[in-house]
Amino acid sequence: MNATPHPQPAGPTVVDAVHRFSDILAGLAARKEAKVTVADVLDAFGDRAFGALLAVFAAPLALPMPPGVSAILGAPLIFIAFQLMIGRPTLWLPKALMNRSMRRAE
Questions:
Q1: Are 40 and 99 in contact (CB under 8 A)?
Q2: Which of 8, 45, 57, 76 is the most exposed place for a label (fewest CB within 10 A)?
Q3: Beta strands in 1-106 (DSSP E)
Q4: What was the pLDDT predicted at 83?
Q5: Residue 103: helix, strand or coil by DSSP?
């Protein structure tokens, strides 16, 4: 059997195009605007917003919490996971939530 090497693709690879979670957050923090909206965060993460928000809402549930916290944090988890399950390419959130903003630390 004669094995021929596979040619390497030209140009940047997928690994080169993917930024780390911390790099995306640093880019948001470096913006000149005083406020960052939820829409800005979702745009920065793109299709990776699903994983970022799932991690944000699931992380506190790994710690002992008072009763009721799991229901409060579980509702957004179900909402986000459902969108991922039906195959949405990007995360959809209500307009009222997308327009919410956070002040950037100076």
A1: no
A2: 8
A3: 35-37, 101-103
A4: 94
A5: strand
